[in-house]
Model the fold of this input.
Amino acid sequence: MAEKMNLRSPADLIGMQGDRVISFGSGQPDLPPPKEMFEGIDLARDLRYGLIQGEVKLREALAREYPGSSAENFVITNGASEAIDLILRCWNRGEKVLLPRPYYYSYLPLIEMAGLVPVFTDLNEGRIDIEDFKKKVPECKAVMINSPSNPTGRVESIETLKEIEKITQKLGIYVISDEVYKDLIYERENYHIEGNHVITVNSFSKTYCMCGVRVGYLWSVDKSIVEGVCEIKTHTSMNTNLVGQDMALAAMKTPKDYILRQQAIWRERRDFIYDGLKKLGFDLWRPEGAFYVLPKCKNAREFLTVLYRDFQVITYLGEWFGASDRLRLSYALDVKKIEEGLGRIGEAMRKVQVL
Done:
């Protein structure tokens, strides 16, 4: 049996590199950002402090994408993760948050660090079980939705999202809708959940391939959320970096063709890795968005160890996402590397029983 690696979280693997390393780990697009992103940067202006809520021009540009909105409905944050962190800290400790499982690995720690209590609803074939949702949501302050999903790659049906809209609006329960992959859906257009208690979280990282710039935002018509987030942000990170906000504003001028070309590339990669893993015998859901797969895997920690130690292949443990019997792979790398990585996974399967 392979010696187990003492892995506590993805932090132990993020950024690992090497000449032979193939990383199916971090969900970082390898595609080039739009050239428009680098236009309009003004360092003389951008080295000052900025508005806590975010620069007005960027918020006004975002408002044009959210019908009936104004700049006052947005807060610009250091990536989507800061937005979620600040939202959760607006509420009283001890309140409950409904969390679909599997979930993005940061959700649970952020809920717990805010002093909130997670209530789990297990996904059915990678999607929300609306009947279980209905049973558990009345006791909660909020529910978290992530569609397309990291780690499953699944997209919630419009019917389910509308039902969630209806239920939460009636009960006065907040919906935190994490839509960072909304432009990476292969099957249909994104459906934006709306309502007085909806808080949309988004980011420029995935759509425009600018993860390290750390620019995200939240949208809400609830003034108390916007004000509460700004108050906390004043005493933590203060303003989001202004160079990044310039880049985000410029990126929004990118022609729609840029996103369509990206979708075509992700779709090709999705088909390649999905078909390849199925041929190896893995059981997994077919992604409809984002760039992740979550195959079932016996002895997942041992297999991850062998893959990294003996074959220089990085994967993430499903247990970090609330799915202990799975591994998560990102296909944010070119087809040749995916092909090589699949070959090494096949070789590693001779050493560890995974099916």
Q: What stands out?
A: The longest strand covers residues 96-101. The chain has two domains: 10-32+256-348, 35-251. The radius of gyration is 20 Å.
